[in-house]
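Please predict the structure of the following assembly.
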Amino acid sequence: MKKQLFFQSAVVSTILSYLLIFVGGLVRVSGSGMGCPDWPKCFGRWIPPTNIDQIPSYIDATSFNIVLAWIEYGNRSLGVLVGFSIIVLNIIAIYYFRKETKLLVSAILSLILVGANGVLGAIVVSSILNPFLVSLHMILALMLVSVLSYACIESYKLINIEKFKGLEINRSLSNSLIIFWIFIVIEILLGTGIRTNLELVSIENPLLSKGELLNALDSYKYFHSFLGFTLLFLSVYIYSQLRENKLYITRFLGIFILGMIVVQIFLGEMMIFFELPQLTRLFHMWGSSWLVGVIIILYNCIGNEYAK
Amino acid sequence: MNTLNKKLIIAFFSVLILGIIGLFTIDQATQSRINNLSIISEVPSFELDNFDGIPFTEKKLDNKITVASFIFTQCEGACPIMSTNMGLLQKRFSDSDILQFVSITTDPDYDSSNILKEFSDKYSTKNNWFFLRGDINDVVKLSEDGFFLSASLLPVGHSTRLILIDKDRNIRKYYEGTVDANIVELQNDIVTLIKQG
């Protein structure tokens, strides 16, 4: 019962955090980051103005755009909601699971990460969206969902010990999952680097076209594609190893990873060759965040302490 | 239907709904940027002189996107920041021949053509930035009646706002010339106007 409570609380926090990453990405691709020029308030108000007359006289209203303000406000309020859900998770962890180190540490770590990212959000706004800081803001969010995914799977295992008992240990699969996760992290850092540099170049050269911007990047942009295809081969291998697995969840996650890599490559190429770049960018970023969490869950299913 | 299929269908529709919300939000944001650039009013006719003595009238605004400001060269507070920011934009858009810059002195008694030329050398790197002077009454009239910007206790009391004017001589938006966030916004709005053609 208590374990169930922790598990449910962790799942809610994880799903909300993934939604937050989506909304945060939406803020970036729609260019709404400066929708509220102040922090934590928005044009001096806790609820953003719906009309320019509501802005207090001591705040300059020239940059007021109601749509951008509410998009940015959506990101902030969802962030607060995630914060509350993680506080609840911590209360459960401290109250019932002081001796379960894995649950307690992951809960506390997620609280630290969400707090730190809130503060970083304020710095992002005061830096007028410095592309480095915006990317760092996303990377901290990825660390948050990684820790929360870990909390989910560890509490799930506590509830379903029977399922995990007596499973075969597959060392090469565990190792390839570690390599896969490291590659994914490198791949995300490369992708983030490409985006950061595109934004930096475009601030200095606002009239460059998409093609010219891509040309202005170093050759490491090819490395991002190359590593993407490497990940495809690795995910095929992982899928083949998991196909016969006794646990339903691991079989499912094997398919999920393979499918997600294919989708990611497709979205990545779409961004280069087709229009509608903003929505594609958003899902490309969001998909990568799912991979990070899913691999952590999968790894902890396979290499679990209840196996033989 | 088993629970897996149900979950997959829920997942599929959740992603679809998020996609639609995303598309809608991105579209709204793009639209709002254009709407925020709605026409405020038309720049009235005026006649001032550039520092090289060539007259500059409202006709020079036609078919150009113009960023305008009121400054004076002895000003120590806002004007250097405003002018540095305009210089930054001039540099960033140096490939564009549709963008131009105009700074009007609120101290024509002191700011002779030569002094304006020196000021220009300090901040401007291209010949698309005009530094204008004229009769102080004309300048006050242009600021107050043309641009709706207060101009009392000159030269110090000039507005610190930058004015964005489109190629049909319409005032589109104002920006606080000393606030970095507003300069970023001005840069984005210039891109929007240039792309609109």
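The CA atoms of residues 82 and 178 of chain B lie 6 Å apart. Chain B is about 45% helix and 20% strand.
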